[in-house]
Amino acid sequence: MGDSVEDAFQRRPEEPRHHGGAEAGGSLVGGVGLVCTTAVRLTATDGCAVALLSARSSARELVYATDATAQQVDELQFVVGEGPCLDAYRTDRPHLWPDMSAPGTATRWPAFTAEVVALGVHAIYAFPIPGNGSPLGVLELHRLTTGGLSTAEEESGLACATAIGRLLESDVDRLAVATALDDPGLVVGADDEFSRALVFNASGMVAVQLAVSADEGLARLRAYCFANGRPISEVAADIVARRLSLRDQRDIRGGQGG
């Protein structure tokens, strides 16, 4: 039998890291990456991502993704504001969807379902990452084929989510990110490969342009990206560089005139 979750979790910092260019020396991203690659192997899935969320704002910070598809699945849920990972976080229980084309998924997540199937993702398994009384975020696994998890695979997913929770709670810098999610303007770790700090900066600029709240600014930014079929990181970069302004949408969805 291959490595257990505990084997991966307890590896020494000097061992090679996987994907994402994380530095050696016990970095959080490297540690989370090790658990993610172990989760993919033990659950026979095709990709994995870890995201931190906040119960008090719509902010969402991607910590790690094993591949481009996993990153796209996470970003899609961030943009449209729906999906199994968000439900797993809100209900604090696993949401296991072995067939994203099954009846009911499109009704439950109308914007997300069509887009994720178009990416070639046909099954999603979301496990809340346990924290001190409430989830810190979600471990997101996906398959490119339909099919449920076996009992052993589901237990492995739960164990990996728990291992990541221990990593997050023991890392002061990343806990600062989790705290800052309640005030996106304070998000740290902007140099991280997966950080959405630029997105939160852009949403603040949108809020000013449209004379709306910070949460509404983020919602309007996400809506613009979805309507125009553009990655949110790309749009955010254009807004921060002042190549794009959403000021002409000021009166849409209740923005105050002026």
Number of E strands = 5
Q: Please tell me the overall pLDDT.
A: 79
C-alpha end-to-end distance:
66 Å
Largest sheet: 5 strands, antiparallel
- The succession of helices and strands, N to C, reads HHEEHHEHHEEHHHHH
- Per CATH, the architecture of the largest domain is 2-Layer Sandwich
Shape: globular
Radius of gyration: 18 Å
Report the helical percentage. 40-55%
Total count of helical runs of at least 4 residues? 11
Number of domains as seen in the coordinates = 2
Runs with pLDDT <50, length 5+? 11-26, 184-191, 254-258
| CATH level-four homologous superfamily name of the largest domain | GAF domain
Class per helix and strand makeup: alpha+beta
The side-by-side strand order for the widest beta sheet comes to: 2-1-5-4-3
Q: In terms of topology, how is this protein built?
A:
Blueprint: H1 5-9, H2 28-43, E1 47-53, E2 60-65, H3 68-80, H4 84-91, E3 95-97, H5 105-108, H6 110-118, E4 123-129, E5 137-143, H7 151-169, H8 172-180, H9 197-210, H10 214-228, H11 232-240
Antiparallel strand pairs: 1-2, 1-5, 3-4, 4-5
Helix pairs in contact: 2-7, 3-6, 9-10, 9-11
